[in-house]
Design goal:
Distance between the termini: 52 Å
Strand order of the largest sheet: 1-5-6-11-10-9-7-8
Radius of gyration: 28 Å
CATH superfamily of the largest domain: Bira Bifunctional Protein, Domain 2
Structural class: alpha+beta
Largest sheet: 8 strands, mixed
Length: 455
Amino acid sequence: MSKPSLARGTRDFGPEIMVKRTFIFDQIRAVFQKFGFLPIETPSIENLSVLMGKYGEEGDQLLFKILNSGDFTKDIKENDLEKGPKALLSKVSEKGLRYDLTVPFARFVVMNRNDLHLPFKRYQIQPVWRADRPQKGRYREFYQCDADVVGTDSLICEAEIVLMLHEVFSRLNIKEFVVKINNRKILSGIAEVIGAAGREGELCVAIDKLDKIGQEKVEEELLQRGFESASIEKLQPVFTITEQKDNLFDVLKKWLATSETGLKGVEELEEIWKLVAQYGLESPKIAFDPTLARGLSYYTGAIFEVKALNVQMGSISGGGRYDNLTGTFGMPGLSGVGISLGVDRIFDVMEELQLFPEQATQATTKVMITNFDEECRNAGLPVLTRLRAAGINAEIYPESVKLKKQFDYANKKNIPYVLIIGSEEIITQTYSLKNMVTGEQSQVSVEQLIEKLDA
């Protein structure tokens, strides 16, 4: 008999944790809906032709591939093994688990383009999978909460992403955070001015690791990737430019003066800052970060990343503008922008900072009715029905046992109230309501009970 175990990088969630996770989902969903986004879902399994090539070289390696059904080796020839894993992959696997929600969304848009009204605003809350090395805050299976707008290149969408992020974290009581913003055009401009035009992809992969490995290691990686020492020397402002407290964009324009693409990126960032101010967002927690690259190769404009401060945690949200993601599926020129919130990391931050409100730590049951014997049970069932009809989460203890055992059950489930129905209560139609937190008891009718619990 094998010992039960979990696959590395995955987790079970018991009721206590799920109540808290549901609280996070509910707050995020409410904000998405408030800003006009509509829900969709896509399958967990996608064709590899949909997924491959959308996340860069490193992303492709982190895709979970699914072996073909039956004899998956039947198409393999002897010389296929010599061609390497990429050639072999097409022989043994046609499908994979989705890596994120954005690429499946792009496929969805193309396949349903005749039924969608553009601009189309959607949100999606589903799990994704990545064959990454498990560590704190990084799992192989985790939920993403995405909101995207496609069919417009208006920078109002970027500004509203900033607003949504602020409202989500305000609802979750995460007060110390920063929304880092960059623009892929600026990264292309940097590649141009350091004499490495067209190599912004390699540049992005390296400098995106700055927070993890530091400047020296980033420079070493760039050398290994074939960047000239002179180019790396010209790159130095990227590591210090944010120290400019005033006229930051003016300094950036001066550095990127010879790159039309880079200047366009600066112009777009300035417009986002201006729009956020016009919305009236007080003390926006936004910051320009020229080293922010995000490894996903489909970003073409603004890039977002949110970090919670004063905790041992990396990014808790990220996203950006993509101008032609649907082009790979035969629908070119459709611009979009979106954001993804990592619920698992947000959960860890809230646990570490003890930010969950009381209602997010209680059981879903608000009141439990006791069960002493058949007569008391028969009297309790109609009361239970009335409570549920009034929209109050309620249950009855299923067996006739000692009161202590029933109280222990309520305490273990964090049920805040117990309604005691004994022979005397049946006669008077007035019941004893015990507050399981304070221990106080009061006598209530069914009407008074409903009024009290529904308040």
